[in-house]
Amino acid sequence: MPAVWLQAVVVLCAYVGYKVTDDFSLFARDAFGYDDVAAARVGTISFWMRPFAAVCAGVLADKLTPSRVSAASFALLIAGCLAMTQQPGIHWILVTTVAATSVGVYAVRGVYFALFGESRTPMAVTGSAVGLVSVIGYTPDVFMGPLMGFLLDRSPGFAGHQHVFLLVSAFGMVGLAATMLFARVARASSAVKTPR
Prior knowledge:
elongated; mainly alpha
């Protein structure tokens, strides 16, 4: 079932995006020179986006399709991460970029399991499929923290954060490609299963 493997890639890339939210406060401190309290406030913006983004993404997925919402969310995540690789600028730009990137992260996380419905994964194998997707999709819990630490230690300051955001952008591009391929596979599968 190619759709299940593609969904695993989507979840993995989305979870890499989620792990980068751990870097927002440190980025504000290192790149913008904020003190710890002000940097923590910037990081908190990300958490306020979570319920709003997830609920709105779910409503949109019901009206459109989960894959379309997922693709738009990855595009927002990529744009936000690429914006953060630019030289630090004005406070409101940082806040807007963190908020937009967080919306992309939490929106895709809000709908990535809805992809099972879109691909019409048979109920008889849903448990196995969810297990496989979860094992692959949540591996960033294992590697992303050490990888981010390595990048930040190797290039202290703004340069290290640039590398982290570029890495997450690359994963976002892979996630976007996997989502688009998933949508094509799901459409083909739906056409085969739907009687004419």
